[in-house]
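Objective 1b: paired records.
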Amino acid sequence: MTDFTQYDGYKQDFDFHVGPARQDDFRSREFGDRLWADVSRILRTPFDGGTITPDSHEGYNYWFDNDDLSSSLYSGPREPGSGVLDQVPATLTVISRSEDVASSELAERIYAGLTASDDYLVVVFAHNGMPTAANFDIGDDW
């Protein structure tokens, strides 16, 4: 299991960049819906009452919050020429609001759950913009 606790602290969020393991025929909405449902399942938190709205760039914004956590997802179109980030066009952030559960614990659960299925490419960035974990080769140009 990947250890995210070393990056914990006040306002120390984790940004997940996620893409499909198979790169063919990508559709922002379908991918976002599937990822949103998988994150809800992994966290064992129904995202009932969450919002999904289109944006002006062919992407979709997803948002959910309750007393325990806040979750947002942007699933947008691929941006050719953006290197690794073209492979992972969705951005997910989940923040713990609970005093009993650190954001790093949520990040560990999400990373383990998403990478266990072999359906997703995942890169996690810490608050300073440095990658902390990836399940594929992202190179050293950070």
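Objective 1b, second protein:
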Amino acid sequence: MESFYDWMCRHAHAMGWELDEEAKKTFRVWAAIAATNGLDEAQTAQIARGLGVTSDEVTAAYQPEMRAAAMSELLEQPDLAALDGDLDRIAGEEPPR
């Protein structure tokens, strides 16, 4: 899976941007916001305009990373990790423990 940061960099290069350190820092901030809180409509539209893509493409690019981060955070909770295991067993029709 390509990270949202890498995705933004790839699209910026495709638009002909030369990414200096300041631009890379800005992309890292956007990527961190997207992974933790998601992006609101205005943020998504701003990134889409700058990278020459649609808002839907921006959302599709960051959501897998955001979901993975959320799942990782949830599974750090012992009770939720156990529940996840129980749900996996139920979905797989395995007998309860």
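The mean pLDDT is 86. The chain is about 75% helix and 0% strand.
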